[in-house]
TrEMBL record:
Species in which this protein is naturally found: Herbihabitans rhizosphaerae
InterPro entries: ATP_synth_F0_asu, ATP_synth_F0_asu_bact/mt, F0_ATP_A_sf
Major localisation: membrane
Domain of life: Bacteria
Name used for this protein in its record: ATP synthase subunit a
Gene assigned in the entry: atpB
Gene Ontology CC terms, in alphabetical order: plasma membrane; proton-transporting ATP synthase complex
Record membrane topology: Multi-pass membrane protein
Residue spans crossing the bilayer: 33-54, 89-114, 120-140, 186-209, 221-246
Family note: Belongs to the ATPase A chain family.
Record has Transport as a keyword: yes
Length: 261
């Protein structure tokens, strides 16, 4: 989480953004990079182990894997893309959901205790280098470049003069802002959540062990209790953010494939 920093005179200095910039482990390799690789290994191992010796009556482990797959397939991909077109995109949606989920949950695991998606480059890379090309690529392949751009930029049923105002907004929204906000949303939630947990944990430590006033010790314990409560809330947010990212990605793909606007 980071070390408790005391200013001269023993005053508490709250954590800042420095806690997200961890020193290299070796060479130029940092902890977030290692966590990304670890997350891939964890996901691959999880599904490989679950797929061994499949049974009609699943074990708890098999049931967990099937639930994750079913949720990604039916509740995200099928709902957002449509029953006609969703099947080819199930691996992508499943991968996005599980990858972001595991990297988010790393922030709650002792020793690891760092949500990889709190580094903005990682969710933006997923959005701009993975979702964005697939999203517009499938639309262009389905409709052709000209028809796709017309469908996205010039919504039908709008008076021609309105297009001078509406079309630039459509271009800015669909080709610039949507892919950026897709990544920023996850980053902002993980960044702020991790910072809040560190703040209340270290504040509790300072008030209980470092403060010169014993009267502040109960406040420090209260701070710890709040950190525990926030941990459960943060766990829920981590799952929700993984779902939202995958759900929006599937929604963009479904909209690109659809015939209407």
């Amino acid at each position: 989480m980071g070390a408790l920093v005391l200013a001269e005179g023993g005053d508490f200095v709250p954590p800042n953004t420095d806690i997200f910039f961890l020193p290299p482990i070796f060479g130029s390799v940092t902890k977030p990079m290692v966590l990304l690789v670890l997350s891939v290994l964890v996901i691959v191992a999880f599904f490989m182990v679950a797929a061994r010796g499949l049974k009609i009556v699943p074990s708890r482990f098999q049931f967990m894997a099937e639930s994750v797959y079913d949720f990604s397939r039916n509740n995200i991909a099928r709902e957002q893309i449509g029953s006609k077109d969703f099947r080819p995109f199930v691996p992508l949606i499943l991968s996005l959901f599980t990858f972001i989920l595991v990297n988010n949950l790393f922030g709650l695991i002792p020793i690891l205790q760092f949500p990889s998606m709190s580094h903005i480059g990682f969710p933006l890379a997923l959005s701009l280098l993975v979702v964005y090309p697939v999203w517009h690529g499938v639309g262009i392949r389905r409709h052709g470049l000209g028809k796709y751009l017309k469908k996205e930029i010039f919504p039908p049923g709008v008076p021609v003069p309105v297009y001078f105002l509406l079309s630039p907004i459509e271009v800015f929204t669909k080709f610039i802002m949507n892919p950026i906000t897709l990544g920023v949303r996850v980053f902002a939630a993980m960044f702020s959540g991790h910072l809040i947990l560190v703040l209340f944990t270290l504040a509790g430590e300072y008030l209980v062990f470092e403060s010169s006033s014993l009267m502040l010790a109960p406040v420090g314990i209260l701070s710890w209790l709040f950190a525990i409560a926030m941990t459960f809330l943060e766990a829920l947010i981590m799952v929700l953010q993984a779902f939202i990212f995958a759900n929006l990605a599937a929604g963009y793909i479904g909209r690109a494939l659809s015939e209407d606007h």
